[in-house]
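Final report, results section. Input specification for complex C-07:
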Amino acid sequence: MIFDEFFDVIVIGGGHAGCEAASASARLGANTALLTLNLDLIGQMSCNPAIGGIGKGHLVREIDALGGIMGRVIDRTGIQFRLLNRSRGPAVRAPRAQADRTLYRIEMRRTLEGTPNLCLRQGLVTSLLMEGGRVLGVELQDARRMGAKAVVVATGTFLNGRIHTGRQTYEGGRAGEPASVEFAEALKRLGLRVGRLKTGTPPRLDGRTIDWEAFEPQPPDERAVPFSFSTDHIRQQQLNCHLAYTNESVHAAIRANLHESPLYSGKITSIGPRYCPSIEDKVVKFPEKTRHQLFIEPEGYATNEVYLNGFSTSLPAQLQQELVSLIPGFERTQIIRPGYAIEYDFVDPKELSPFLETARLKGLFLAGQINGTTGYEEAACQGLLAGINAALGSLGRPLFRLNRRGSYIGVLVDDLITHGVDEPYRMFTSRSEYRLALRHDNADERLEPYGRELGLVGDSEWERFNQRRARLARASALLKECRLRRSDERYSICRELTGQELGDSLTLAELALRPRIDAELVMSLMPSSASSEFSIGDLETALADHLYAGYLGSQTAGLRRLNQHDALNIPQGFSFRTVGSLSHEIVERLERARPESFGQARQIPGMTPAALSTLLVHLTGSQSISGASQR
Amino acid sequence: MAAQTDTIVALSTPPGRSGIGVIRISGPDSLHILRTLVSAESYNPTPNLMRLKSLIDPNSAETLDEALVCFFKAPHSFNGEDVAELHCHGSPVLLRTIIDLILKLGARLADPGEFSLRAVTNGRLKLTEAEAIRDLIDAQTDTALRQATRQLKGEISNRLRPAKENLLETIVRLESSLEFVEDDLPAVQHQATIDSLLGLARDLSRLRSTFAAGKLLHDGIRVAFVGRPNVGKSSLFNSLVGHERAIVTEIPGTTRDTLTESIAVSGVPVLLIDTAGIRNSSDEIESIGVARARREAADADLLIVVVDGSEYLREEDQLVLAEVSDIRHIVALNKSDLPTFSTATFDGRVGADPNCSAVMSVSAKSEAGLESLRAAILEPFANGSAHSEGLLITNARHHDLLVRSIEAIASSAQLLEDFASEEIVLVGLHSALRYLGEITGETTTEEILGQIFSTFCIGK
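Structure output:
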């Protein structure tokens, strides 16, 4: 086959998955091309102008620890940083930041353009070129052919995208941008199992027409916690968000017009994310609620445009305008971009290996919404993993995977390939069995060594990592050394704060286990040299390690009983039909999920304890397992 | 594993002489074996229908038995496999011969519970149901049988369901407050959550406390007869069992080994153990019997100390009474039919000895007082609610899981009390949910999330 250009790796799509994939692939030394419909919109945030949150913020920290780029880009372009769940334990705290949508996009493009081995190309891919079950390259709408050893598909909502507002419906990948329809057909022709999902976005408002006095401001954190382990401080100016609420008249107007909503008129049948419901859904499903909370979020420094988070809708544009005007403070407010719903194709992620390569088509990797996920962060971490493996594969190096124990990325991939998706998949901390171990602030400890080994973590980052490690070790030692005594002047303050008796003396490590003792207070109790040696962030990490040490043991013990056979390998090509007495249904489930370990098999929905013990017996070749079913 | 798909056979009725004996064959060769036995290669039985057939030994062509045979076609049998049942006459020799023949035809003897295991692996039974079936098979008496039937109907699952839902609700509230901090959710009520968890732990503890009684129901009460020789232990044993099991003679020391027999007392299985009379003997064999009697006494849940009430208390009687003083016991004064019988020596003993729950006057000969003695056997265990109609935990695995979940819930409540953060509290609650799930079926993360989204309006 004759190609116009040839690369090691081609990445299709310039969204959050595509950017990470292309960057990682190029930096691993693979000659990489990023193909996108519009080079001006690389790194575009399609929906809310924000990165992070609980679960999602954890993912961004992990991406950064592995050497990905999302954390650095948001650190440079974030306009409101907040650490969520500050009052809760460190495992469930996570950073979140509003982004300047335009600056984020520009910074992302600048980052990619500064990456050696990476070529940006504009064009619409119409088909994959295959030979003998292997990817050879892609064909473009303008008849160009590009060859590659591996292709990463990260098409987001563009794959056969269809936009709905009211009764209007049209093809599109995002408002004002074309969908990728021919390519969707091409993927189906290759035999991939394709389904349909839905998501939505709220209207954008003209900030000049808002009565800001009517809304409660939500200020940024005083001490911004960055996403990247290589960022020391957030220097740019920080802005407020505002809180708003819907009211009964808005709800009444929505109810009166439900027939106009494609969600309720039957035009849209595919499933959207339950945790990101449209305002129509909120009103219908929770009729007892008299108001729903909304967030007015700035889109950037240089624009008046604001984002009305929480008001996702596919009602007709004129009606959206009427509804918004019913909220006090928005009486004069003009919508400048209406909200809409979008349906798009996704590929059943059970088609994928833990490396995000399709099982049937060698060299074809999928990342992001095409795998049934939602969210920039979920997309980006898949892009990173797919990009790493596409590059490793093209360079003949062994592929890279992450497990559930060590990262949320591992949880996400394992969930996707084991269970598939019924609705757009979003990360929650409760998805992990090892929540206490997977903190946002120890992502470096967990993953940076992998990033270094792969070659994505540079010398200066690695140096920082080792320095931080040394500081944490010293801080930890110091916490166990320094004591608070009854004679100390801060003693009574601490006793009052905790509301507990503290005894004659206790170490700062012990003190920190008591309620309402935070890192700032502990720092003030340490020798004065400490504050110059450690940052508050260092101390928080050292304290968190200490706080959870005891629980991690018991959490692991509780899971061990359940998981003791999880590591048991299921050989590739293992025929579940040869396992006697598994019901037809169970065999079918197993064959669909193709678990690679007993642990994965255990998590397949519908697996009975009996089927599992039978499988276990078969896998171990031993009859001596516990349980009454063996009698 | 080939062993999972081969054909197994077993006698499904209790061993020993009986009216009929049912032989059950299960697995792919069941029909073939049945055809060979009825000597008709083309025999095509209507499933689920009983037919009278001659069972014929294919080697000798001799008719072994006239039996009712029934064939159940997979997957419409109780365990999802092809199953054949042969209802034969209940002679042990005959049944043995037929089973031997079936073994020669390619089946193998089933392991205990293997029929049920196949039912479980074929998805015909849930694990708790299978465990209850095992109890059903093992059930020795009617009460235990009712209990097993009750578990079979998923009653443990039903009983645990509200507790599990209660736990899930708490988990959902705590999880939501962690995961959706930006959403406008109702605040978690600290004290109410603690109270709810403590209530849950108490509720599960009540269920757990039925284990001791449940275990007695399941395993039965071990009751050993002890006493010096020739006070009539074996006669009493025989009277309670209802037929002559022990050899009774006038010669002291006739019983040299221990004999055991099961009886049902008010539906509770009672294992009666007749032991050799306890005395210092020069006879080596008798000495071994005495040593064994002492061991049985030590293992028993209850002793019946048999004393000859028509005679003065001998030194040997004193020896026995001294030996049992730290074991729960009843004193049975035998031979109340004789004129010299007197209870005087034992007046006041029940109050004086905390381990002595009753002194009964009985006569093995006239059977006087036997009913009272039966009732007295159960009395020490009555506090354990052996008669309660409530659900009883009989299975050690269920008991273990309940104990673990109670511990986990209680320690989570304590953590909340100490103002620990929710993610720490949730570790124990998720463990408890998993333990309960091992009894009733697992709750997946997806279900927890589903519950969150249907309870609260989430989403920016």
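Chain A has three domains: 1-457, 471-550, 565-630. The first strand of chain A starts at residue 5 and ends at 12. This concludes the modelling results for the funded period.
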